[in-house]
Specification:
Layout: H1 23-29, H2 31-36, E1 50-54, E2 58-64, E3 73-78, E4 81-96, E5 99-114, E6 125-129, E7 132-138, H3 141-144
């Protein structure tokens, strides 16, 4: 497609336009940024970063959830999926001699992590410290045993 040369009609010149100057070309360079550009000024809730690590004996899920309290975090296990949900509400009020200033904010998130049925969810342990949630799920006995499959 770069063999086609677009021409600038607005300047009434015969000089070809450089690639990347039109909105169409910019849209394909970074399509998500271009599509979300009207919303750049808005604060959208962010999903927490999640790391899943597996060893021979357990599965550890670490989620970065800064600024939350333990009571605002909800963990559920259903059909082999660990769901981490959180909700944060904040109200700030200042009384000044010229009036009152009040600001309210609200944000929530939900993150599903499919782990299958190879973990003992009844023995799961969760710890929240310094903005990091760590969920430790021991593996079932059948998941601990490795099966070797011979390749011909």
């Amino acid at each position: 497609m770069k063999s086609l040369i677009p021409w600038k009609n607005s300047e009434r010149s015969a000089a070809p336009a450089r690639w990347g100057e039109s909105w169409f070309d910019r849209a394909w360079e970074d399509p998500f940024r271009f599509a979300l550009s009207p919303f750049e000024g808005m604060r959208l809730p962010k999903m927490p970063s999640v790391d899943v690590a597996e060893s021979d004996r357990e599965v550890k899920v670490r989620a970065e959830i800064p600024g939350m309290n333990e009571k605002d975090i909800d963990l559920t296990w259903q059909d082999g999926v660990l769901r981490i949900r959180g909700e944060k509400k904040s109200e700030k009020e200042e009384k000044r001699k010229d009036g009152m200033y009040r600001e309210c904010s609200y944000g929530s998130f939900s993150r599903d992590i499919p782990l299958g049925e190879s973990v003992e969810w009844k023995n799961a342990k969760a710890n929240y410290r310094h903005g990091v949630l760590t969920v430790t799920l021991p593996k079932t006995e059948s998941a601990k045993k490795a099966i070797t499959i011979k390749v011909n």
